[in-house]
Amino acid sequence: MNYTLHQLRIFQKVAETLSITKAAEALYLTQPAVSIQLKNFLSQFEIPLLEVVQKRIYLTEFGREIALAADKILSEVDAIQVRMHSYQGRLSGRLKLSAVSTGKYIAPYFAADFMKGHPEVELSMDVTNKTQVITSLERNEVDFSLVSVLPSHLRIEKAPLMLNKLFLVGKADHPFQEARYDKRIFEQIPLIYREDGSGTRHVMEQFIRKNNISVHLKMELTSNEAVKQAVLAGLGYSIMPLIGIKNELLQQQLRIIPVKGFPIVSTWYLIWLKDKQLSPVAKAYRDFVLAEKQRIMEEQFKWYETF
């Protein structure tokens, strides 16, 4: 056999994601490049590692064993790099984050200066819904998660970052003239929801139950961006995080509808498992966030206070 570490890393990522597209995105490679290297790697084994059923990739039993071996080999390779750089007084390694979908608007700002200060560090960030984010943390697949709803079943450490404000939002040209509406407005408008498992939906439903509000569910969509586009198209209204609609508000494409009890406010937290042995990179990042979060909020999110 004559496979390379590059091919082994590609196989590991395909085995993890069961998707060439997702593996390519995670490794910052093109799909054809991943496909070619994967094919060259697989051709060196007489027993199949993968099988494709109805266009979906599955690991064979032997493939699972090779994937576990690949994890161990690549972990040792990464450890060698870390040890070498530590002798040189440089911080290196991989920082793994997961963030809820609304967190994509803030997470990069809480990582940018850290990454600039440590060019040997690699950042891996997975943006998905709350359920998947908590699952990745529980499985110890990431160092930190960015969430707005804390998991009740995990023992965690947490660092509050900033407030998450949610408003009732509609298309800018819709005729709402009153200075402030009460909860009966929800009986008159079609409401667009995020999918089950979303932190935004969790906060919405919690508010609706607490206030005994009757709502007219119009549709359910799987991302805040999809919800925003539906609202822009005039398909309905939604309770949306302010952080994701700044440009549309400034361009007067969307408008905040003033409702008693709004905004709904939660908090974004950076969380990590309480008993997790943080790597040197993870420890350095945690310390950076704790020391610099106030400065970052003042520099990057001053506009947030005007709403």
Any descriptors?
307 residues; alpha/beta; Arc Repressor Mutant, subunit A; D-Maltodextrin-Binding Protein, domain 2; seven-stranded mixed beta sheet; two-stranded antiparallel ribbon; 11 strands; 23% strand; globular
Order of helices and strands: HHHEEHEHEHEEEHEHEHEEH
CATH fold annotation of the domain at 164-265? D-Maltodextrin-Binding Protein, domain 2
User: In the CATH hierarchy, what is the class of the domain at 164-265?
Assistant: Alpha Beta
The average pLDDT value, as a whole number, equals 88
What is the overall silhouette? globular
Beta-strand level of the residues, as a percent range?
Answer: 15-25%
CATH architecture of the domain at 164-265: 3-Layer(aba) Sandwich
What does this protein structure show overall?
Among the domains are: 1-90, Orthogonal Bundle (Arc Repressor Mutant, subunit A); 164-265, Periplasmic binding protein-like II (D-Maltodextrin-Binding Protein, domain 2). The chain is 40% helix and 23% strand. It has 10 helices and 11 strands. The protein has helices spanning 5-17, 20-27, 31-42, 61-87, 112-117, 130-138, 199-210, 224-232, 246-250, 280-300, and strands at residues 50-53, 56-59, 93-100, 121-128, 144-147, 156-171, 190-194, 216-221, 238-241, 254-256, 264-273. The longest helix is centred in the first third of the chain and has 27 residues, at 61-87. The termini are far apart.
